[in-house]
Amino acid sequence: MSRKPELRGRAARLARLFPTGPARAGGIQAARTPFVLLVVLLLGGGLIGLLVLNSALSEGQFKLDDLQKQTKSLTDEEQALQRDVDAYSAPDALQRRAHELGMVPGGDPAFLDPNGTVKGVPEQAAAEKTSVDTPVVLAPEALVSKPSPSPAPAAGATAPVTTPATPTPTRPVKTVQSSTPTTPGR
Fold first, then answer.
1. Is-contact 46 39, C-beta < 8 A?
2. Taking CA atoms, which of 33, 108, 165, 173 is between 20 and 30 Å from 153?
3. What is the secondary structure of 24-45 as a DSSP string?
4. What is the pLDDT of residue 60?
5. pTM for the full model?
6. Mean pLDDT, 10 residues at a time, over the chain (186 residues)?
7. Are 125 and 144 in contact, with CB atoms under 8 Å apart?
8. How many Cβ atoms from other residues are within 10 Å of residue 88's Cβ?
9. Which residues contact residue 124 at a Cβ distance below 8 angstroms, ignoring those fewer than 6 apart?
10. What are phi and psi of 178, to 5 degrees?
11. Phi-psi category of 73—alpha, beta or left, where left has phi over 0 and alpha has psi -120 to 50?
12. What pLDDT score was predicted for residue 186?
């Protein structure tokens, strides 16, 4: 009584998917091979994908480090330039530079009314005889170190003779203005 009951409908369709008889030579093995190959390919593809993703992230990290170093150096340079601007715009530095250019403080100003009358007494600025010593805030060019003195000449050698440099007079720069008016945006 080894008779098996007949299956109908859904059960019959499922029974056809699974082999029931004795295993044929290579029959079951042949059905498992595509599944095993699929699993191996999926695992290998996943590992290769992780490797590519990891190397891309590492490359991005190196670029980020380089950009951070560049940003730090540019920030340091900006701060140094800002210190120079602050030193040049300090009141003592401006006064010293104006004195070097031959500028003198102005006197009391005179004003013109809309009707053409002059309020106040206009007068020419007089050169004051003040000595401007080293300012409290030094300009950046004053911070440059001077070259060290040369070593003493050996016995019997003559020392080089240096003459002080005479300052060259500066000429005023003339500017030429255009006679045609310009309007913004044209």
1. no
2. 165
3. PTTHHHHHHHHHHHHHHHHHHH
4. 94
5. 0.37
6. 71 73 54 88 97 95 96 97 94 91 85 90 73 52 54 50 48 48 51
7. no
8. 14
9. 107
10. -75, 145
11. alpha
12. 44
d(CA 134, CA 111): 36
The structure tokens 């300052």 sit at 167
Determine contact, residues 117/130, Cβ cutoff 8 Å: no
- 72: exposed, middle or buried (Cβ count in 10 Å: 0-12, 13-18, 19+): exposed
Structure-block tokens of residue 41: 């390919």
Which tokens is 38 given?
């699929």
**How does DSSP assign 46-62, residue by residue?**
HHHHHHHHHHHHHHHHH
117 and 126 in contact (C-beta within 8 Å)?
A: no
| Among candidate residues 11, 17, 45, the one with its CA nearest the CA of residue 31 | 17
Largest Cα–Cα separation, the chain = 140
> Six-digit token pair at 99?
């004195």
Could you tell me the two tokens for 134?
Answer: 């080293």
* Amino acid of residue 164: P
The rounded distance, in Å, linking the Cα atoms of 89 and 34 is 81
Q: Which amino acid, 99?
A: H
State the CB neighbour count (10 A cutoff) for residue 93: 19
| Residues 6+ positions from 156 with CB-CB distance below 8 Å | none
